Amino acid sequence: MTDRLPRVSLANLPTPLHRLTRLSAQLGVDLWIKRDDLTSLATGGNKTRKLEYLIADALARGADCVVTAGGPQSNHCRQTAAAAAQHGLACCLVLGGEPQPPLGNLLLDRLLGAEVHWTPKPNRKSRMQELAGELGAAGRTPYVIPIGGSNAIGAVGYVAAMDELLGQAEEAGVAFDRVVFPTSSGGTHAGLALGAKRAGFGGVVTAISIDAAPTDHAFLEEVAQVATEAAGMLGDSVLISPAELEVEYGYLGGGYGVVGDTERDAIRLMGRQEGILLGPVYSGRGFGALLDMIAQGKVAAGQRVLYWHTGDESALHAYADELLEGDVG
Ligand SMILES: *Cc1c(COP(=O)(O)O)cnc(C)c1O
């Protein structure tokens, strides 16, 4: 059970599950949405569920500050800054790339009191360790949270989330054929895949990679390892193998964090048909991919599909020009 592990409350749970009526009629599938954009931690998102376990672990270890890393518009960093503030912990963020103007999540990081350190993207992990070393030498007790919060402790948040979804689905009288969500560092995928297997979920769990396809099997082996380790923490002997992890690649478009037609069209469609904001980097790309899979018949007509909104609309303001391209309104 997921209540075996220490947990702090950061999210407003359960997040809503509801049907997208207008889009269902338009697309010919029975389309539902799980609103993890409404976890409510400083605009919400999927990292909040992971942080409930990660911050509890940090506190149990006597930490007085957390160190984590991400991209300039990282939703993980923004939610970590908010979670740390709520628990009286200082927060150091290592962001990959050149310093950028304080828009979107970067503005929120600053308002939430995080200290931002810029470093070239490939150096993020080593810079985190270096910072933690400096903090320790200065008498502080740092706790390093991996990129995306994607270790076994964080993944447990999405095992619990899968239980939550399946309970709500049963109540609503819908058995999903497929659950679709955007993936990057893999912790959400690890948790959902494990949660699905433990619960005997009969549908398919499909992760949409927002990154480039890896050139070897190492990444999915790592995700499977995180899932298996999370099972162990829950006192469960379930094993997850890489073959059980379904990932769709091919939606990288112009690159990580680059808004193109796929994201722009998906964000506009969801906004204009359902009044829901998707984000530019993850949820817009993931939903655009689902639209493509429906158009191509990879998702069959009439299927009951759940799109998991992972919450990154707070980055929209950093992409105003790309999002409005070609818009005459
Ligand atoms: C981090 C993030 C993801 C991907 O989750 P991982 O656990 O890192 O794979 C998806 N959507 C949003 C909005 C995110 O911030």
Automatic annotation (TrEMBL):
- At what positions is N6-(pyridoxal phosphate)lysine found? 47
Tryptophan synthase beta chain-like PALP domain boundaries: 9-311
What top-level class of enzyme does the UniProt entry assign?
lyase
Q: Where is the active site?
A: 74
Q: What is its EC number?
A: 4.4.1.25
Q: What InterPro entries does this protein's entry cite?
A: ACCD_DCysDesulf, TrpB-like_PALP, TrpB-like_PALP_sf
Report keywords, A-Z: Lyase, Pyridoxal phosphate
Cofactors named for this entry: pyridoxal 5'-phosphate
- Write out the similarity annotation: Belongs to the ACC deaminase/D-cysteine desulfhydrase family.
Protein known as:
L-cysteate sulfo-lyase
Q: Which gene encodes it?
A: cuyA
